[in-house]
Amino acid sequence: MPDAAPVTSATLLRMKQRGEKIVCVTSYDASFTRLLEAAGVDVVLVGDSLGMVIQGQESTLAVTVQDMVYHASCVARAGQRALRIVDMPFMSYASVAQALGNAARLMREGGAHMVKLEGGGAVAEAVRALAGHGIPVCAHLGLTPQSVHQLGGYRVQGRDSESATKLLEEARLLEAAGASLLVLECIPSDLARQVSANLHIPTIGIGAGPHCDGQVLVLYDLLGITPGKRPRFTHNFLEDADDIPQALRAFVDAVRAGEFPRPEHSFS
Ligand code: KIV
Fold first, then answer.
1. Closest-CA residue to 238 (of 255, 210, 219, 257)
2. Hey, which residues does 138 pair with through a beta bridge?
3. Are 114 and 138 in contact (CB under 8 A)?
4. Cα–Cα dist 12/43, whole Å
5. Which residue has a Cα nearest atom 5 of ligand 1?
6. I need a surface site. Which of 8, 12, 135, 182 has the fewest CB within 10 A?
7. Model confidence at 226, in pLDDT bands (50, 70, 90)?
8. Which of 118, 185, 259, 264 is catalytic?
């Protein structure tokens, strides 16, 4: 039974050390946040995926800091126990000064407990500065959607040995810079296992197989309401549930039991 005290970075670290899976789901408003908290999620991520699932954009690139502040503050009004991570949108952390100023807004006006930013070596200085100023940071490696045009599409990353080695080195670098958590998106399961075993901080996977310390899904994928082709790493938990609260509970239970993701949701 999860602890009723508010979830912090220390809670997540303890969960990793005990081998307890961390459950994270994205949320963009107060009503779903209430349902997610009632279902027992540990972490609510106000993701810039809102650009696609809420705003109907083709990518996350058009999302602004103001958009994130608005949705984060809606989520914060309903938040009680779960740790609240808020994405820093595209180009809002291109310099250390921008990172500090925008992260301060996300915390002050948006009620963030932790901010998330994408990238490896290029963002290590920003991570160091944020952590040095008392702002907890979640890093994000692998498929980093804000770099979709550089990556040439939404593709699995780290499949060859050179890129896998680079990803592992960047993960270590981000941990050393002060990151408290690391999202691994769309990488082979074996690489995610290696990264998770080599870091002290917890890893949260999406399309990264079962060996991460926790799992995250975009809420609208979990409920099967994202239009278009369903990505391989998602599952519609509403299919076998009577209602939304039961679907959310099924996701929480499946992650905690190590029953999601299964091989068919993972990459090699
Ligand atoms: O924006 C988002 O929802 C995310 C998750 C996919 C990890 O970054």
1. 219
2. 116, 181
3. yes
4. 9
5. 47
6. 8
7. confident
8. 185
User: What is the pTM for the complete model shown?
Assistant: 0.98
Domain count, the chain: 1
Tally Cβ neighbours within 10 Å of residue 238.
Answer: 18
Predicted pLDDT at 228: 83
Q: Residue 173's Cα: distance from chain center in Å?
A: 19
The residue to mutate among 87, 147, 181, 184, having the most atoms of ligand 1 within 8 angstroms of its beta carbon, is: 87
Query: What is the tens place of the pLDDT at every residue in 81-112?
Result: 999 999 999 999 999 999 999 999 999 999 99
Report how far residue 244's alpha carbon sits from residue 262's, in angstroms, rounded to the nearest whole number.
Answer: 22
Does residue 109 have an active-site annotation?
A: no
Who contacts 18 (Cβ-Cβ below 8 Å, separation ≥6)?
A: none
In a domain, 2, yes or no: no
Residue 219 included in any domain: yes
CATH number of 65's domain? 3.20.20.60
Instruction: Provide the pLDDT for residue 3.
Output: 52
| Structural domain harbouring 175 | 9-265
* Rounded distance between C-alpha atoms, residue 198 and residue 158, angstroms: 16
